[in-house]
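Supplementary material to the annual report.
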Amino acid sequence: MQALYAQLLVGLINGSFYALLSLGLAVIFGMLNIINFAHGALYMMGAFVAYFLLNLAGLNYWWALIVAPVVVGIFGMILERTMLQWLTGLDHLYGLLLTFGIALIVQGVFQNYFGSSGLPYAIPDQLKGGVNLGFMFLPIYRGWVVVFSLVVCLATWYLIEKTQLGAYLRAATENPTLVRAFGINVPRMITLTYGLGVGLAALAGVLSAPINQVRPLMGADLIIVVFAVVVIGGMGSIMGSIITGFALGVIEGLTKYFYPEASNTVVFVLMVLVLLVKPTGLTGRAA
Amino acid sequence: MSALTDDTLPMTPRAMRDEMIVFAAMAVLLAIVPFTGIYPFFVMQALCFALLACAFNLLIGYGGLLSFGHAMFLGTAGYVSAHALKVWAFPPELGILIGTAAAALLGLVTGYISIKRQGIYFSMITLALSQLLYFIYLQAPFTHGEDGIQGIPQGHLFGIFDLSKPIVLYYVVLVGFLAGFLLIYRTINSPFGEVLKSIRENEPRAISLGYKTDHYKLMAFILSGTLAGFAGSLKVFVAQNASLTDVHWSMSGEIVLMTLVGGLGTIFGPVVGAFVIIAMQQYLAGFGQWVTVIQGVIFVACVLLFRRGLVGELAHYLRRSL
Amino acid sequence: MKTTISALLLGTALTLASAGLASAQDKTVKIGALSDQSGLYADLAGPGSTLAAQMAIEDSKLKDKGWKIDIISGDHQNKPDIGTTIARQWFDVDKVDVIVDVPNSGVALAVNNVVKEKNGVYINSGAATSDLTNAQCSPNTVHWTYDTYMLAHATGQALVKAGGDTWFFLTADYAFGAALERDTTAVVKENGGKVLGGVKHPLNTADFSSFLLQAQASKAKIIGLANAGGDTTNSIKQAAEFGIGKGGQKLAGLLLFLTDVKAIGLDTAQGLNFTETFYWDLNDQTRAFSKRFSERMKNNAPPTMVQAGVYAGLMHYFKALDALGGNPHDGAKIVAKMKEIPADDPLFGKGEVQANGRVTHNAYLFEVKKPSESKSPWDLYKLVGTVPGDQAFTPLAQSSCALLKK
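Predicted assembly:
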C-alpha cells in the first residue's frame, strides 16, 4: 500500500510534463488550428537553453525558468511569422507537415553539434536532497516540479478563460474577421499565442533538464505520447487538457508499478479505448 | 479550407491516354535498368518504397486522410513475412501472401479506430497506433528486438524463379510494383475512387448524397494498408532482414516526405518522390550527419514553395493530370 | 559517404621498386568504415572509428612495403536496409575487401550476412550482440572489443567477488536487455550471489522514478542497469536524485561507454561500476596512442573502446595480409590466417582470435572517479579489477557457433 502512494506521487510528476505540453498544444491549436509537431523539439530547446545559460552566461536555474521560455518563445514567434503564417487558409494538414519538418531540422542540428549522449544539468542547490515521507523518499526537486507546473497550468487557464486578453483570444478563434473589425490586430495575437504555447513547451524542457539528460532527441518520442494524451482529452478545453495530462501521468505511474512492461503503451491503449467509446475525446468538441 | 491537391482536371479519355503512355514509358525504363549498369539493389529498394508511397498516396491524395503511421503496415508485413519464411520455411509466394494478409487485418483494426476522427486527429491517432505497435514489436520475442530478423532465405518463387539471383529478384519486384501500381490506378478511376474524391472535397455533401462515407474511408484505409504491406513483404526479399526501423515513426515521416516531394494526389508523384528520397539517402549521405536536417528542409520547402510536388508542378505546367 | 581518403600519398622510388619486386602479388586493399555517423552511436564510433582506421593504415607501415591501401566511410544511419545496401555496393562496385566498425546490433547482423555472401572480411568492433560469434557466426567475421556476454560476465563476476552479492536489475524490455540480465544473473549465482528481483522498463523511458523506488525497496547491494544509451544515463542521473548511492546501494552499468560517463558528468556518475576493454589511461601504450588520436579528433576526445577496437582489428588484419604476402581477395582465407596469428597489439594486449571469430582480451572493471580525484577533463575512471581474456568471454564449449562443430 505504501508503495502505491509512492507510485501515485511519482505519476503526478510525469503528469506535470504531459499537462504542460498538452496545454501548450491546446493553446496553439485553439488559435492557429494547427498541431504543432515541433513541440517536442522546442521542449528540447528549452532544456538546451537552460544548459547554455548556465555554462556560457553563468545564469542559474532560476534565471533559466524565465529566460529560456522567452528565448524559445521568440524563436517560435519568428517561425510563426516567417513560415506558419503563410499557411493561413490552407488545409490544416500542411501545418502538421511544416512543423514536422521544423522538428527534424531543429533536432538534426542539435544532434550534429552536441551528439546524442547529451549534456549534464545539475539540480539547483536550493532543491537538492529529499524528504522522507514515511512511505517514500521524495526528492525535493520532484515536489517542486509538480507544484510549479500546477501553478503555471492554472495561471495559463486563468489568462485564457478569465481575462480580457483571453476573451479576445477566444473570440478570435471563433470569428477572426469580426474581432479584426473591433480594431484588434489578429495576426499579432496569433503570433503571441504561438509564442505562449511554445514558451510552455520550453518551460517543461527547463523543468526536465535536471531530471533527464539534456539530449537532442529527448522530445522526439515524448511528443507522440502527448499527441495521444491530446486525442484522449480533446483539445477543446484548456482545463480539459490540464486534467487529462495529470490523470494520464498517474495512470502511467500505476502501470509502472503493476505491469511495468506496458507502461509505455498504456496511454496508447487508453486512447484506443476512448476512441471506441467516445470518439470526440473526453472533453473535446468534434474536430 | 482549400483541398490538399488541385486535381481538378476531369478524367478525359485524353488524360487517360496520356497516363497510359507515361506508365508504359516508366515500365520500359524500369525494365531495362539491369542492362544500364545502374546498381539494381538500389532500384529494387526504391521500387518497394515507391509502391509504399503510392499506397499512402491513395489515402491522402484521394481520400484526404493523412496517415502518419503507415510504417506500421510496412513493418508488420515485413516481420510476418520474414518470420514465415525463416521459421516456418514458407515458400516465397506464401510468405508474401501471409505478410500482406497481416497488413490487411491490421488495416481493418486500425482503420476502424482511426477513421472515427477527422483531419489532424486522424493523423495523430495513426501516429499513436503505429507507436503502440512499435513498442509491441520491440518487446515481442519473435521480432528479436533491435537485432531484427536476419538472413532470411529468398527461396524459389512458385518453385521456379530463383530469387537469390539479383536479376530474377529484380524482375519479380518490378512485376509486383507494376501490379500494385495498376491496382491503385484502377481504384482511383473507379466509381469507388470518385466517391473517395467527393469525400475529400466535401464530406457532409457526400453523406447527404447517401454515401456511407465511413465505409468508403475504411475500405480505402484497408486497401492502402494492404498494398503498403505488400511493399513490405517484397522488401523482405530485397533486404533479407526485417527490423525495427521499418516500424519507427521516422519511417512514417519518410513515407509522407516521399509523397509530398513527388506530389500529393498525383499518380506518378509518389514513384518519383520515392526514387528521389532513397537516392538522397544512399548517395547524398556524403553530407553524413546532415541527412535528417536535409529531410526537414525539404519538408519545409515543399510545404511553403512546392505544395504540388515535382510531378504536380510539372502536371500543372503542362495542364495535364499525371 | 564517398569520402575517399587516399591513404597512399607517397609515390617514392623506394615504394615503386619494392612494388616491382612483388608484382606477382596483388597488394591493394580497400577498407570500408561503416558506422553511424550522425545518430546514437556517432560519438562512440562514427568519425572517430574512421580516424582509428586511418591511423591503423599509417601505423601498419604496409605502404612502405608496396601496398596500396584506400579507405572509404559510410553512414548506415542505424537502418539495416541502408547498411546492407552500402555494404553490397561496396563489395560489388567499389571492390571493398574489409568492412570495419558497424555499431548497432541490428545493422551489424544484417551486414554480417552480406559479408559472408560476398566472401569479404568483417571486423566488427561496435556491436554488442554476442550472436555474431554464436548462432550467426560466419567464417568471414571477427568480433573485437566487447559483447553482451563479456559485459555481463566480467561485471557480474568482479562485483560479486568484491562483496556485491545481492542484485536487483533494471532491464530494458527487449532482446538486448533480456540477454544482459540473463547472462549476469547466471554469473552472479555461479559466484554465490543472489538476485533479489528486477523490473523491466520499456525502451526510451524518460522517468525512472517508479523503477528506482522498487530498486531502493529491494535493499539489494548492487543495482544492475541492463539497458543502454539514454536509458542508462537517465537512470543513473535519477538514481542520484533519489539518493541511491548515498543509501549504500551501488549502481552497475552493464553497457556504458566513455562518452556516456563524460555526458553524465562525474558529479552524478561517481562510484558507478562497469566494464570496458579499453581505456585511454591504462598504460603508456594506450596513453601514447590516445594522445596521437585526440590531437586529430574534432573535439580532442580520446578514443573509446569501440574506436580502439577498430584500430586493433585492422592492425591484426594487416598482419595477416603481410603474412600472406599479398591480398588474395578471399575473405574466408584472410580470416583463417587472422585466427592463426596470435593477437597482440598495443591497445588490448595479448589475445586470441577464436575459431568462432571472437577475439579475447582482458576486460577491466572500472569505477567512476569522484570529481575531486579527476585531474583532467577526460580523467574519469579508476581501475578496480581485471578479468583475463580467457575468462571474460564465452567459453568455446558454450558457443553455439556452427563453425566449431567440424
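The two ends of chain A are 41 Å apart (CA to CA).
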